[in-house]
């Protein structure tokens, strides 16, 4: 499609979406609840409610242990990888920082984006509402000790992410024009085929692709748009009153970026992610440093309460279940989603990109989420009666806002800006994940159809509250863990071989440093 035709297409799309949004607004203001649009939404929500219940019975089956199956799979996978790879997630930490800094970047290496841009693209999908609202929910449900289990999951999750992203580069497909097709579908299909398990690999790949598409439209799209407006409404009710207009604005900004593919997504996230993380972290550090003498006792409190019945429930059930459902506390480690972004990195060393990827959980949870927890504890916001025992994301965000605002008047506005940036970056990254899965199933020529659908769902998420649709999408994201971790464990000997060979050359000083 030429630039002129593309411009005309998007102009026509925006105008059409504006008319649809205006129709939504008119219907809402007239009180006609039986309109065709509302009837369709109600029917969709009702039918998916049945499916949500079915998936919930599978993913959260605890077999009488009170620990859901999905938590066992994700946590168990991280523990297995950590021990099997000889704790390279710790041994290779310094080296991974050097790679992210660009010391091993070479412009002629195969791929589309730098190591740093691959990391920020992946981080933009995980750093979000979970860091703002999810942590508050965790402390509310399980007390300060719940934070201990969050960090524990992130610690083992580093190895899970290293495994999936190493495989992603090993089995990616590079087209003649330099464009990369990669992700778990490719290493599940081709990797398992090399072990004589082609039917299993193809089945896993197709299931994973379908789950990714569904998750990208819901948890990575509609949920972000919907909850962004809900949280912004705590600053001004106008955001809800004109939700249809906000939906159009968000959808348009998403469209502008995703039509450019991973290169444009990488360029945007490489600017947004450091800025939004810096804005949030600096505000947190200001509060923490002002009360630095309290930090040792707060950390001791987190550790001591980690094994109380309340913290155990809040950590493994409240934190991990709630966090995993929102793909936040697990950092998507084990789900395989980050493999889409890291597969596009410019590198000829799969193990090197795996080491870059493992830093994601460290930044997302061990740094940002811990800071949020300390702020909530320092200010005492988590002890306020209005925030006790909540599992609602908006209430969780209000707790964090109250914590910031009690120390820095007006800080809720900074938080509102952070929410918008977090949600926006999450949407554009998940659009890429869904696009790669769509391409795997339906071919490159149909990509434009997916992009149109994705952008329209940004608008739909902003004007509707489809609880079952969102829950369904989250279930699909969680479901990604099963084929990804099972397939990854089967392929773990190949991963270990690549890591061992690369680490041996690194220790021997045989790797070329370009900068």
Structure described in brief:
With 515 residues, the chain is mainly α. The protein is built from 24 helices and two strands.
Give a topology summary:
Blueprint: H1 3-30, H2 36-59, H3 69-84, H4 88-91, H5 93-100, H6 115-126, H7 129-142, H8 146-170, E1 173-174, E2 180-181, H9 184-194, H10 198-232, H11 238-241, H12 243-258, H13 261-290, H14 295-304, H15 309-325, H16 338-342, H17 350-357, H18 359-379, H19 393-407, H20 411-442, H21 447-463, H22 467-479, H23 481-490, H24 492-507
Antiparallel strand pairs: 1-2
Q: Could you describe the 3D structure shown?
A:
- With 515 residues, this protein is mostly helical.
- The protein has one domain: Amino acid/polyamine transporter I (Up-down Bundle), CATH 1.20.1740.
- The chain has 24 helices and 2 strands.
- It has a two-stranded antiparallel sheet with strand order 1-2.
- Strand 1 (173-174) and strand 2 form a beta hairpin.
- Helix 8 packs antiparallel against helix 17 (350-357), helix 10 runs parallel beside helix 21 and helix 12 crosses helix 20.
- The longest helix is centred in the middle third of the chain and has 35 residues, at 198-232.
- The protein is globular and about 55 Å long.
């Amino acid at each position: 499609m030429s630039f002129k035709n593309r411009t005309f297409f998007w102009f026509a799309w925006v105008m059409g979406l504006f008319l649809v949004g205006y129709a939504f607004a008119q219907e809402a203001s007239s009180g006609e609840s039986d309109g065709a649009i509302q009837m369709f939404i109600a029917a969709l929500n009702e039918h998916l409610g049945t499916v949500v219940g079915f998936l919930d019975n599978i993913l959260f089956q605890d077999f009488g242990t009170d620990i859901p199956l999905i938590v066992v799979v994700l946590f168990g996978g991280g523990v297995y990888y950590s021990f099997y790879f000889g704790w390279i997630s710790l041994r290779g930490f310094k080296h991974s920082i050097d790679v992210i800094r660009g010391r091993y970047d070479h412009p002629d290496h195969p791929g589309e984006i730098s190591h740093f841009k691959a990391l920020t693209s992946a981080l933009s999908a995980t750093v979000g509402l979970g860091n703002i609202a999810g942590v508050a929910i965790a402390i509310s449900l399980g007390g300060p000790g719940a934070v201990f289990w969050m960090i524990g999951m992130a610690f083992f999750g580093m190895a899970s992410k290293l495994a999936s992203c190493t495989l992603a580069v090993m089995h990616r497909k590079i087209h003649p024009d330099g464009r990369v097709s990669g992700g778990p579908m490719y290493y599940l299909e081709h990797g398992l085929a090399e072990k004589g398990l082609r039917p299993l690999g193809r089945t896993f790949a197709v299931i994973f692709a379908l789950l990714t598409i569904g998750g990208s439209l819901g948890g990575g799209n509609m949920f972000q748009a919907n909850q962004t407006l809900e949280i912004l409404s705590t600053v001004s009710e106008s955001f809800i009153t004109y939700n249809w207009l906000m939906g159009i604005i968000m959808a348009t900004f998403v469209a502008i970026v995703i039509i450019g593919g991973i290169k444009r997504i990488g360029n945007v996230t490489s600017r947004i992610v450091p800025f939004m993380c810096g804005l949030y972290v600096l505000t947190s550090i200001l509060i923490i440093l002002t009360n630095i003498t309290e930090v040792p006792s707060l950390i001791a409190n987190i550790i001591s309460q980690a094994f109380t019945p309340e913290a155990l429930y809040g950590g493994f059930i409240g934190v991990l279940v709630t966090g995993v459902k929102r793909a936040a506390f697990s950092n998507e480690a084990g789900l395989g989603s980050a493999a889409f972004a890291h597969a596009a990195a410019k590198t000829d060393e799969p193990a090197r990109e795996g080491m870059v990827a493992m830093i994601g959980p460290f930044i997302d949870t061990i740094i940002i989420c811990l800071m949020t927890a300390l702020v909530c504890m320092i200010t005492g916001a988590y002890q306020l009666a209005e925030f006790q025992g909540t599992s609602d994301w908006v209430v969780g965000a209000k707790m964090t806002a109250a914590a910031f605002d009690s120390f820095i008047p007006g800080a809720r506005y900074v938080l509102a800006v952070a929410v918008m940036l977090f949600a926006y970056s999450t949407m554009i990254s998940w659009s890429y994940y869904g696009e790669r899965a769509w391409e795997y199933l339906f071919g490159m020529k149909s990509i434009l159809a997916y992009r149109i659908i994705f952008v329209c769902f940004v608008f739909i998420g902003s004007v509707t509250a489809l609880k079952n649709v969102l829950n369904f999408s989250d279930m699909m994201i969680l479901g990604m863990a099963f084929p990804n971790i099972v397939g990854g464990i089967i392929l773990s000997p190949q991963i270990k071989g690549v890591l061992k060979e690369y680490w041996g050359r690194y220790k021997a000083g045989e790797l070329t440093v370009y900068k």
